[in-house]
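Much of what follows relies on a compact textual record of a protein's fold. Think of the row as the fold of the chain written in a discrete alphabet. An example makes this concrete, so a full record is given next.


***
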Amino acid sequence: MSFQHPSFGSVSDDRVIIFDTTLRDGEQSPGFSMNLGEKLRMAHALAALGVDVIEAGFPVASEGDFESVRQIAENVDGSVICALARSGGKRDIEAAGEALKKAKRGRIHNFISTSPLHMKYKLRMAPERVLELIAEGNKQSRQYTDDVEWSAEDGSRTEPDFLCRCVETAIRHGATTINIPDTVGFATPDEMQAIFTMLRERVPGADRVIFSTHNHNDLGLAVGNTLASLEGGARQIECTINGIGERAGNAALEEIVMALRTRHDRYGLNTQIETPRLLSVSRLLAATTGFDVQPNKAIVGRNAFAHESGIHQDGVLKHAGTYEIMTPESVGWNSTSLVLGKHSGRAAFRDKLRALGYEEIDDATFAAAFKRFKELADQKKVVFDDDVRALVDEEGRDHDRVELKSLTLQGGTRHAAHVSLEMTVDGELRQVEAEGNGPVDAAFRAIGEAFPHEATLALFSVGNVTEGTDAQARTTVRLQEAGRLVDGQGSDADTVVSAARAYIHALNKLLVKRERRAPEELTV
């Protein structure tokens, strides 16, 4: 059996389409905002990973969101570029269509709530009016593209008969993909499987569309619900890198893809994902957003292939399959970690970047990262892979408003900490000095004098990139302002410099978030 799809042509029944919503649903998480340059870099990485559909944003939400979708549609090849819109929002769909004009393959994804709870209290609409808007939204979307997706928001809590009517209406008026989200993470795997089985059996025209599943992780069931949906007949999964997303997040792309690959004996399904790139894309997202992956995170956590137990170590040494169900290399981990030193040149550094998955960084980012690498190599005897990743990820950010130039610290047991700081704000060089209750406090006070703001420090955390006393510090800073939360990350062999970089990264993200307005009812 195969599906005919306007963007993919004939799609065999063992093919699973990967729909990544990191740049839309994932970015709705508190603190996860990205600027245009960061979104573009992430979109190129997702396309290189082999993602079939990239949901780039919600164009009507703000001028920034519109421009992000437009730029990604124009500049990113290899993936279908998707824009979100509300089924009842004519302006939404117009904005989505306009933003996608230059996409080689574009998709409009329109949605509306269908559960009794949402229709009564959120939409305040009768079911018949919802059906009218489904018809209108899909017809209008088809004026811009043949690739139209429709979602039943809170679909897992929608009455079965009404859900069937909604899906039939969407298909009849032009939808080519039907998505049933578990919007609030309420469903269980058997329930999600049953929903897709029912729709495929009961809805006229179900054999002419691809069914999609979008699961939130409020009860920790997002990946399980996604796999069960596939067993019910869904052939598109909506997911995010590292499982980021609203509240407890979404189903994690890397976990689903590797579950399908590792348990091909059970599912018999395939994706187009280049799995050795999973780790580098995960780390790119973590560095961009300032949110580290927890150590025990499946697939991409730093402990995912670590073995401390003596029994486990003995077993792995005798045969890796005793305690590893997949190879570290299959998802991008490199067994060789000592690679570079102070005598390494540009060619060796470039080769290492390629080996780590950084194949398309621009010349300016490469030059800045190489300069910091040489500085770090002068301080450390050896530079590890994780050191290199930290350097490149940080230099790849777009500090387009605020940037650290230099920091000098004086302190100790006999003197108050004193910091001299140089930083640019919108290209203007500012030089300040400040004292504080310790070097980090002095650095943060100096930043506040150079760039006055009302944000308060909500979290300050210091870790290390690698092991040893010469390890780079990796610092996370969380700022809070008027209900907004942003996290920033910085890395440096000097902990105070690392902290200053993290604070400035958070400030840049806060400036992006100030410009964004969230439209009502945006979820899915």
